[in-house]
Specification:
two-stranded antiparallel ribbon, mainly alpha, single chain, two-stranded antiparallel sheet
Length: about 425
Amino acid sequence: MLKNGISYIGTVFLLLLTHVSMLGVVIVRGNIESPTNLLLLAGAVLGLDLAYIAVIKWYRQMTYTLDLLLLCVLNMGLIFQSCFGEVQLSVKHLITCLAALAACQAGFLLTRNQEWIRTKKPYIYAIIGILILSILLLTGDRSMWINIGSFSLQPSEFIKPCFVLICAASIMELHKKKKILFFYVSKDTLCLCAMALVIFGLQWWCRDLGSLPTFAAVFGCALVCRFCYPRARISKTAVGALCVGAAIVLAAAWMLAPSYVQDRLHVDIWADPYGNGYQQCQALIGIARGGWLGLGPGQGYLHNVFAYESDIVFASICEEWGLLYAFLMVIAILMMLMTVLMNPPKSYYHATMATGVVAVFVVQMALNIFGSCNLIPFTGVTLPFISQGGSSMVTCGFLVGMLKAGQSPLFRHKADKPKKKKKHSKKKKAAGRVKA
């Protein structure tokens, strides 16, 4: 049974019903050029459902809600990605879905023991350092991508879970504060701030300002968790100084932003519909064209626009499936994030980690959706689990595993458990004395 009172079988039934209903929409309204393509898509979706449902029961944990919601969202994304332009199984997205599920279990197993993670902090810092060096040395001229033939990798995506872990693993070090000038701070907090500045500088140097709000949100949540820590004893002066410093940094960033950033902030997309505003104009037209129920899977036009499957995927879904399905997709992702309210984390480490993970997903979703709708400048950030991309999918899967770790934590290894002493009954002791 799940903690929420819904049986495991009942939840599985709802999961299968969701995907069968979506496949029914594809059959009725989809652009199906070959029945074989539809059979391959249905087999991949339902086969992945049944296989993962059977495998996940072998994992001992307190709840399976998050696993089933993750599977639901991933297969929704697989159906969406397989229907843009025409109905044809997206093998690439299927592979990344499998990688995301594997990464989820890896994240769960590696991060649920807070004591073990605290001992591995130097290695996590080293991993972040290696990823930063790979970006600087292997990606080319101020780029974030490593291209090896037709294969591409974005190392900055893997920095996100490492940064969240650093924020969570160093929370206990607030007990070890030292006075520096007028403030009491811990060594780990200073290292965290230094690492945040390095990451911010890297994003600025590589002109990838779309990911900068995500890292800033994680760092901000880490600071809030430190303010709320029971024994933090952070003075009002320190809080005020941080707020003033943040305001100065934001003002300086706004004034000193490069010309291409200023152009995005002030561009009128309708004044240049075939230039800088092309993607957003086409995205808005596609959303309006789709209405509530969409034109039908594979019946849209946006698949001819650059980055239709990643940066403006929300608009592509709205055009072919309608706003109704797009909202249901967003609600499904938000429900996955809200499992921390249904099954609260069991320690401050797990709570801080869950807060950072939720911050990553919420900010990325907001940037992608609001950018597609022209409510904010276009950033090019992917929509978690829905956009196509290997690095992003693996990272998101690992982050969900971290979220699950807070609901089924492990506070010590089996090898660390004290050995049970053999208890002898009083009768055996008495019998031994008589024999003696």
